[in-house]
Design brief:
Length: 146
């Protein structure tokens, strides 16, 4: 009888220990996601200059390369379900807003983007998240009309 109680107690303690370790790991993962998201969420509804948008493009590109996000034949990152990041820039044309992907800006050259848009203000109008991981998936910056 004492042996059975001892075995059940050890089993119960083991289960509790496994649950505690899993919860701690989940909390740490959630904290990492929140910290990573905060790097991008600080731009939400905030007005920034073109130089800052270029920095976000660099940061997102570096992130995608670090996490080995696949690219198509044109060099555009292919969004995945977990950790890819896209940045869209909406620039004011004579009549309308035109949308450009971050890869287009990179191809043309961020130096040229900075030269032409360094004093132009943009606003981060939208942030989207991955459904599975809740990590930032996409940011949209829109040129503010002057």
């Amino acid at each position: 009888m004492k042996k059975t109680i001892l075995i059940l107690s050890i089993l119960l303690l083991s289960i509790l220990l496994i649950i505690c370790v899993a919860l701690t790991k989940n909390q740490a993962n959630l904290a990492n996601i929140q910290k990573a998201n905060l790097e991008y969420e600080t731009y939400k509804e905030k007005e920034v200059f073109g130089t800052e948008v270029a920095s976000v493009i660099h940061k997102a590109t570096d992130h995608n390369l670090k996490h080995e996000i696949k690219q198509d034949e044109k060099g555009f990152f292919i969004p995945n379900e977990t950790n890819s990041i896209k940045v869209e820039i909406k620039l004011q044309d004579e009549k309308e807003l035109k949308t450009y992907q971050m890869e287009t800006i990179q191809k043309v050259g961020t130096e040229g983007f900075i030269k032409n848009f360094n004093l132009i203000q943009f606003k981060c109008t939208n942030i989207e998240y991955h459904n599975q991981t809740k990590r930032v998936a996409k940011l949209v910056f829109e040129q503010i009309e002057e």
